[in-house]
C-alpha cells in the first residue's frame, strides 16, 4: 500500500473539543493547552470560534484566548467563523485560517443552523470572500458526510455536491467529517472519493469521530487513498451530542501512535502530547479516553 510518508494532524481540541464542556474552561487553561500542543509538535490547530456566546458560552473568551497567545510563525491558527459577524470579530486577531461549516444533510443543516444547505453556502460566501481579501485561508468542513442523526445514510453524491458549492465560493481546503461517528472504512472512502471530484488530495482532510470505535480504521482507509491531513483532538476531547455518553473526536494520541507504528512521520512528540492531554484531563477531572495515553501513563507509573 502506498501510504503518505508524512501526515499533518490538525488538533481541534481547544475549539471543537472544549466547546460543549459544561464546566467553564478559563482562557489561561486554553492558552496553556495550545502552548503544550505546540511544544509537542502540533503545527496546525483550531484555537477558538467566533460565535455568539449565547449559543456557545464556552467560546465567549475567544478574544482573550487569541489576544493571549504567543503566536508562533510555524503554527497555523484556525478559528471558526460561521457568519460575517463572527469574521469581523475575528479579523483584528489575524487568524491564519477561518473555518466554515456546512452539512451534506438537509435535515442536519436545518436543525443545526436553521437553514438549507444552499442558504448556508450563501451565508458563508461573504465570509470566504472577505477572508481572501485579507489574505486569510478558508477551510470548508462538511459535516454528516456518511450518516445523519435525522436522515440516516448519506449518499456520496451529496458530499460531491456540497464540496463543489464550497469550492465555488472560495474554500481552498475541504474537510470531510463523520460527525456522528457512524462511518466504516468503505463508506469513508466513498465520501472522500466523491469530494476528490472537486478538490485534490493536498486540499482534503478527514475528521472522524470515534462514537462506534471506527475512527482509527477510517483513518487507515483514508490513508490508503493518499489523504495526509486529519483533524484529531488531544485526549479525545469532545463528545457526540447525538449519541448520549458516546465519545466524539478521535484522540490525537491514538492516531499518532498508529502513524508512528506505520513509519509515517507526524513531527509530533508522543510523550509531550500525552502530557498536554493529561493536563486538560486533570483540569476536567476525568481520565482521558485515549487508550494510548492510558497505556503510557500506566507504564510511567509502574516505572
Q: What is the helix content?
A: 40-55%
Q: Which architecture name does CATH use?
A: Alpha-Beta Barrel
Instruction: Count structural domains.
Output: 1
Sequence of strands across the biggest β-sheet: 1-10-9-8-5-4-3-2
Summed up, the helix count is 12
- Biggest sheet overview: 8 strands, parallel
Q: What's the CATH H-level superfamily name?
A: Aldolase class I
The outline comes out as globular
Low-confidence residue ranges: none
What name is given to the CATH topology? TIM Barrel
Kindly state the mean pLDDT as a whole number?
95
Distance between the termini: 37 Å
Rg to the nearest angstrom? Answer: 18 Å
How many runs of DSSP E, i.e. beta strands? 10
Could you tell me the strand content as a percent range?
A: 15-25%
Secondary-structure-based class equals alpha/beta
What structural keywords apply?
two-stranded antiparallel ribbon, 303 residues, alpha/beta, metal ion binding, 12 helices, hydroxymethylglutaryl-CoA lyase, metal-binding, lyase, eight-stranded parallel beta sheet, HMG_CoA_lyase_AS, 16% strand, TIM Barrel
